[in-house]
Amino acid sequence: MLVEAICAGRAASLPDGKRSAIAKSPLEGPVEIGLRGVAGDEQVDRRHHGFPAMAVHLYPADHYAWLRDQFGELPALSGPGSMGENLFVHGIDEATTCIGDRYGLGTAVIEVSQPRQPCATIERHLGCKGVVKAIVESGRCGIFLRVVEPGIAEAGDTLEPMERGALDWPVRRAFHLVYSGGRPDRRELEELAALPRVSDRLIHDIRRRHPAA
């Protein structure tokens, strides 16, 4: 899987005045991938993004076409990094990528830790209502990864599968179970929370949203 862009962003004001670094841009040349993520990238909301388990965000590039099909041409969806992702990659998605999957990226090693939980910032950034609902219903949520081994990477490198994680737990299944509402099966929640490579943040959300688990 070719990494077409590695992206970073700095905090800026959205149309409603809220500050966010969701709008990211491709970086040129070799980039440091550290424990806190891509060098030069800023996370304004440290509660829902960033080190350690959510250091790197990948929003599958194939979803861009789906978003345009659903909502028309979105000016803010202008290119790599427009959905807040650090890695712009085609040929990967939440249905086949599992919690705990490990990849080599340049000299770094990164590991899938949890789905992204979409929030209103996406709609403010895109200037379009209904996007979050569509993401929740479809499970096209995006993927968070931790950095297991820091290293250097650049656009044009390959995202190399190294080790499979929990094959029964693709990211989309975890997303629907925790974030899609309804009354999920308690045993499934307990199984997800017990995975050795799942993020502490996802476990926190399971306990907060589904106290019985």
Overview of the structural elements:
- The chain is an alpha+beta fold and 213 residues long.
- The protein has a single domain, classed as M1 Pyruvate Kinase, Domain 3.
- The protein is built from 6 helices and 13 strands.
- It has helices at residues 63-71, 120-126, 131-138, 171-179, 186-193, 200-209; strands spanning 3-8, 12-13, 19-20, 25-26, 31-34, 37-38, 56-58, 87-89, 102-105, 108-115, 143-149, 151-153, 159-163.
- The strands form 4 sheets. A 5-stranded antiparallel sheet has the order 7-11-10-9-13. Strands 4-1-8 form a 3-stranded antiparallel sheet, with no helix packed on it. A 3-stranded antiparallel sheet has the order 6-5-12, with no helix packed on it.
- The longest helix has 10 residues, at 200-209.
- The chain is globular.
- The model has no long low-confidence stretch (mean pLDDT 92).
Summarize the structure.
With 213 residues, the protein is of the alpha+beta class.
Observed structural traits:
213 residues; alpha+beta; M1 Pyruvate Kinase, Domain 3; 5-stranded antiparallel sheet; 3-stranded antiparallel sheet; 6 helices; 24% helix; globular
**Lateral arrangement of strands in the main beta sheet:** 7-11-10-9-13
Could you state the oligomeric state of the chains shown? single chain
Helix content range: 10-25%
CATH architecture label: Beta Barrel
Structural class by helix and strand composition: alpha+beta
| Number of DSSP helical runs | 6
Task: Evaluate the radius of gyration.
Answer: 16 Å
The secondary-structure element order is EEEEEEEHEEEHHEEEHHH
Straight-line distance between termini: 36 Å
- Biggest sheet, open or closed, and with what strands and sense? 5 strands, antiparallel
What name is given to the CATH topology?
A: M1 Pyruvate Kinase, Domain 3
CATH class: Mainly Beta
Overall strand count: 13
What is the total domain count?
Answer: 1
